[in-house]
Amino acid sequence: MSGGYGEAMCTDWCEKRCATVGGGRGRGRITRLDLYSWLCVSLLFSALLGQATPQCPDRCHCAWDTFTVVCSDAGLREIPERIPPETVSLHLERNYIRIIPESAFSHLVHLQDLYLSDNRIDSLSTGALRNLGPKLRLLDLSYNQLRHASREEFGSTRAKTRLFHNPWHCDCTLQELMETLNLEAETVNEIICKSSVRGVGEGSRWEDPGSQGEHAGQPLAKLLDSGVNFCSLQRKTTDVAMLVTMFVWFFMVIVYVVYYVRQNQAEARRHLEYLKSLPSPRKTPTETDTLSTGF
Length: 295
Description:
Mean pLDDT: 76
Low-confidence stretches: 1-11, 24-30, 45-51, 200-209
Distance between the termini: 136 Å
Largest sheet: 7 strands, mixed
Strand content: 5-15%
Shape: elongated
Helix content: 40-55%
Radius of gyration: 42 Å
Number of helices: 7
């Protein structure tokens, strides 16, 4: 019910009721008039309150006293629309969400707790979590399908972050992200490398497609503490690949030059043999007399 319609109906109703009871006398008239006035005011405030109360997203439950929006186990496949901007705690656990758009949480400036665990999230849009406000205290992305993530996607958030139970591919980008985030200490050792960047001696990706790297199955935090540096490892691998590429290119150039020289030698030899096979020109009688006269 809109505020204008409710107010007009209330005013009309109150006028009719006051006119009805206006002919009465004594104490009963005052009591009934007070009762109708109270009902009219209650109706007006109910209309205005209904207009001011924010709407709860579909399939969700909202607790306005704590500004908590609960959308757990709702069968959602994407971030719901119309999440109230006053939301402090948002629960999206145990759904079928796969992608987090860039502007999904940009209007939630008061958000403190964001629960996204037990979904199917396998990718984050660039800056998807960068728009979260500075008040964010907890970010739960555990039990998803994330393999790659970078600092650009998380921005400068300092919230306590849960990233365990994801099939991570451990490389330099993930290492830099781990060194930037405020990871939850209780779960940091549960961030396991499902696969890892290949070392120099691990063969090529084409020769052994089933291999997941020598660090697969190990906790990322323990690897970093033991001195493993995926960034330097990746640079070494890149350098070796570049050297191999340059060697192959140089070898192909040499082969082409040798082939070109041999081909030219063969052509020159055939041309020389052709010239030798030509008959020598005979002298004419006029040329012989001229020579004799000269002597």
